[in-house]
């Protein structure tokens, strides 16, 4: 079987606590992402989503475990991975435009100044920043505008992997919708792979091929990989009429409201080291019809799976 584009193997993050018990944020988190997939991760605040993303970006290290992208272990940052952080992380002394050209120049050292400017303007216009705003420094922009610069900067370097940490959180509903549409347009016309943190279940269903669900911390883990098999192109006004939409939505909401906590209280192997566990693949859209097809995303035929995590009649677990 072809290797996945991104492999996360038995990732654990612990923070030492002098004089007390170490804080284990998450333990033995394992999942795969295929090339070109759009994967969202959802979980309650503090379960470790941003930490996982920082490890994928090469900006933080796990206590144990490994991340492999395109067959190479991730050991530091790279222009192959573009990151949009919750807090923008712009260079404060540079204008919005120069924040974008900086990355484009690093990515394409052979390009002329004109090529770099043209390319950077294209992405700034895409996020609605033109007409003079592009010459302002981050401190002269609103939170939403700063976030848009950060999005333009990440998209403009056209990385193989886009890592997005609640990228639309600071945006008003209209801009959010426009940039979500642009993200889908850019992603679907490329071979880019996207890993995105969001707290918004509707946004995740609209955008993702799969949604990873994390249990609450400490000792958080990725419990399920929920397949969003709603056909594309998707449209936010029409998606709610898809027969699977509310089954998926209810499954996600129920996980966040009830099961994320209940599962966190069940430590799987209390009397020994935990084995790496890949999340169960779940297809809630097929729950009434019975089983899903079992093909495709993230599954490894023959591999041990965790026991079903919810009653079988409420969902279809791929065996
Ligand atoms: N330097 C640190 N020392 C100790 N604990 C830390 C440190 N950095 C993060 N943590 C803890 O790690 C846990 C995970 O943090 P993280 O930001 O990854 O969570 P998250 O799921 O992204 O949360 P949110 O949804 O609120 O952004 C939190 O409990 C946090 O307090």
Outline the structure in words.
By secondary structure, the chain is an alpha/beta fold. It has one domain: P-loop containing nucleotide triphosphate hydrolases (Rossmann fold). 29% of the residues lie in helices and 19% in strands. It contains seven helices and eleven strands. The strands form two sheets. A seven-stranded mixed sheet has the order 6-7-8-3-9-10-11, with helices on both faces. A four-stranded antiparallel sheet has the order 2-1-4-5, with helices on one face. Helix 2 crosses helix 3, helix 2 runs parallel beside helix 4 and helix 3 crosses helix 4. The chain is globular. The C terminus is likely disordered. The chain binds adenosine-5'-triphosphate. The site of adenosine-5'-triphosphate has 12 residues, from strand 2 and helix 1. It holds the Pfam family ABC_tran. Belongs to the ABC transporter superfamily. Keywords: ATP-binding, Cell membrane, Membrane, Nucleotide-binding, Transport.
Give the overall average pLDDT: 86
Report the end-to-end length measured between terminal Cα atoms: 18 Å
Name of the top-level CATH class: Alpha Beta
**Helix count, DSSP H or I runs of 4 or more residues:** 7
Overall geometric form: globular
| Poorly predicted segments | 289-319
Q: Spell the H/E element sequence.
A: EEEHEEEHHHEHEHEEHE
Protein name: ABC transporter ATP-binding protein
InterPro entries: AAA+_ATPase, ABC_transporter-like_ATP-bd, ABC_transporter-like_CS, ABC_transporter_ATP-bind, NO3_transporter_ATP-bd-like, P-loop_NTPase
Family: Belongs to the ABC transporter superfamily.
Organism: Denitrobaculum tricleocarpae
